[in-house]
## 1
Amino acid sequence: MTNSILHKADTRGNADHGWLKSRHTFSFANYYNPERMHFGALRVLNDDVVEAGMGFGKHPHDNMEIISIPLEGDLEHQDSMGNVAVIKNGDVQVMSAGTGIFHSEMNKNKDQRVKFLQIWVFPNRKNVTPRYDQITLNLADRHNKFQQILSPNAVDAGVWIYQNAWFHLAKFDKGFSSDYTFKAKGNGVYAFVLNGDVSINNQNLKTRDGFGIWDIDSIAIKAESDAEFLLMEVPMTI
């Protein structure tokens, strides 16, 4: 029997630190909801806005796969492995925190905000050597298609992580529909609508709504308006 869970945009946790505004789909920092701890191996989905010239100072992580997807502006990354990089819309960044890393994330610009998704996935291997990678995507490859941006395999399209997970970005024209077939048995898909109106298996979703579905092999997706969304396929057992 198919199972699903709906998280409307306005039901997410809300944090306003002045320089940082964040909406939390799952429990994070001061937001705690026992009904929203994770979706399978997907632990964190934060929708962050960082004001001009501000950011997260150096802080530690370990044994987590951390993915950043910039939506607007320029985010400057520095870490204890010696990496210094700027990521912007069209880029995807990944870190395997493994045995432990420190990193900072700052809005590089003094005159505009930066918006990005910060996503954490539980790894299937602990205490790995920390690593960092980033790629720049061809935005045209998600027009009425599922553009793979993450997988478990270094040789596949996108970045890779230590987990049996696949992420896809898609930008559908109004009225376009397509089926997404799950890559692995026992996985679920968590869909997050970046903008527009989408229906997934007849569940209507609006901007920033989240919808998780599992115990099924494929899902039918239709754009009810021009829409952009992220599909995160992850194991349902950790």
## 2
Amino acid sequence: MRLRTAALAVLVGSFFLVACGSDDATPTDDATTAAPTPTFSPSKHVDRPPEGTPPSSENGAITLESPVAGATVTSPVTISGTADVFEATVSIRILDAEGNEIAKTFTTATCGTGCRGDYKEAVAFQVDAEQAGTIEVFEESAEDGSAINVVSVLVTLVP
């Protein structure tokens, strides 16, 4: 009986050492294998989103799906995307090649503050000649009215 108890203690002790990952435990049966020890590595930082992902603000509060960067646009240009912003209000502006604001308006997403909604707005602008331009969507800070969560794309503006 003592021999049986001692053998059981050794077996339990060996199992415990194998289960805990001790290097000192040597399995006596070829069928006995230790479970792999999980390893954890920090997630990789991605500088750019995967190809095809719409541009978005740093924290993802606003995305700009249309127009895409490099598009040639005429007036009115339809600007669309998704947003999770205060009171669902998405501000929009178009800048000409010199950085002058040539259009400014806002639209409302289908959901706001705590949920993501779609937005879409046709925005009229006027230019005399084809030129580079910038379309920006952003949220106005409730604190001071400054532009936050800004997303911009470079486009070609055509009269």
## 3
Amino acid sequence: MPRTGLAFVLVAATALGAAGQPAPKPRARELGIAALLGGTPGALDAITDVPGVEVGHATVIHGSGARERGVGPARTGVTVVHPRGRQAIDPVFAAWFTLNGNGELTGTTWVQESGFLEGPIAITNTNSVGVVRDAIVEWQVTRPGLQPWGLPVVGETWDGTLNDIDGFHVKTAHALAALDGATAGPVAEGNVGGGTGMVCHRFKGGIGTASRVVEVAGARYTLGVLVQCNYGRRPDFRVAGVPVGEAIPDLLPCTVGGAKSSGMPEAVACDTPPVPTAPSSSPAGEDTGSIIAVVATDAPLLPHQLKRIATRVSLGIGRMGGMGANSSGDIFVAFSTANPGAALADKATAVQMVPNGEINPLFHATVQATEEAILNALLAAETMEGADGVRVHALPHDRLLAALRAAGRLR
């Protein structure tokens, strides 16, 4: 298998649904959990329910065993969101917010100053922000009709637990593949794109998405959220208010054969018998990691209102058990595809906006879709072994459902 390169990325990008590939795992909606979170999902229950939005992934997986800088193992990638599709040259109203700022989302100074997002949003690992940012500039300047310059918006979370993060395995070709391969329709989740090597509440995390449809001031709008989740302690993990992390205190990250890992030095050997503990003292690990969230809507919102939307992502994370720890980079961007042409006008122009007094349904939708997007990432992710033999387990669906039933939330 190739260690890096565009050919491998294209295979990974087209694997979902291909012949011989396993069917996607059930999502929160199929399991009956989405109904517990509130709201009405869109047709796809994804950010791509917002018309025009496209998502692309490039996934880099190769190697096994001991970590060797620049060689592997690699468990990483890039995820891209195009607000109006990859051919659009029409910026969207946007805003951003940080719950805890131990992370990076480039280009946000201009988003805040101008009120517009002028290109795609990309998410990758911490050490690959620069190459992905530069790849977006290259992509923009070499495509006729696209904006010939820009301050790209690129976010990150740290995947060094499973990935040879200091080996810089994300290349320009990977970012270009994600940019060019983005589509509308169902979004691959879990161990894909920028989420390939991520860990969430000490289970395998990654990319997740969800959407809600709401009535606002007599009109029907869609709001979607996409997350790259890589945060949280196990005991804090909640689903629909149920302390699932306390019900599943085992299946913590471990090392195959007891090898030592620089990415997770506290991990025990996978064959070590579990030590019974009370839920309140169950091993948790340090609350490290981060989450990036992208919120899209077709509701006509102005930048100050989108800032308010972006702040509500924090509440969805809090419902799942995220605390915005000191070591976490919790950074969110929200945009509206309404008011096309507003950024391109050369004279005073009229724009629409939802009245502030009618915005609450969109706040609710943001919280609900964020909570479900994180859950969908966990439900989709598969158990993964990475650098230094570290194994991170997938959230077991059967035990999740059992915990919800025991709490009286599911039949």
## 4
Amino acid sequence: MTELGNPPRRRYDEGCIAAHALDVLGDRWALLVIRELLLGSKRFGAIRAGLPGISANILTQRLEGLEGQGVLVRRTLPAPASVQVYELTALGLAVRPVIEALCRWGVQLPGHDPRRFISPTALMLSMAAVARPGNGPDLAAGFRLDGESFAMTVRGGRCEVVRGEAPAAMEFSGGANAAASAIYGPRPLREAVAGGLVAFSGDLDEGQRFVDLFSLRA
């Protein structure tokens, strides 16, 4: 037993490089903790808000473990904020393609339900991962979800998202789960807006073209 009374971490004890990576990322919640930090630093409470199923004790353990492996760091914001935040190192940011690959693989599995809890960061990352922009016109949209703001651009066959506000011709606002249902669900955007599922500003036809880039349907 460790000093805190928790059982020692289980390791794969293999020379396989994938197993070596899973010694760091394979603990439950570890990948999702990293996911919540991929678009920028967050305070402990904000990370936990994006992972409602995790206890404070387990989150503390995962943060300490990932910090010990050089995946993330703690730092204190300058005054007047003067609060402690967690942010990914270059090693941590390099996990993003792994999470994006899991999103694309997960699309092929039955049973996905966009009505289940999804954090704003998780929604933005999943959209960027599954986007099929093709060679269509450039599009940009803002998102205000559960108190967080994001800017997403689709240009040159690529989809990119950053945290923060940026001028855009259209904007989605509301809860992250409502936005997920509006984007991934079967209803046209016009119906989702009329039904109050999500608020939208901008041209609805252009908004529908944007939403269609993220369809999970075959």
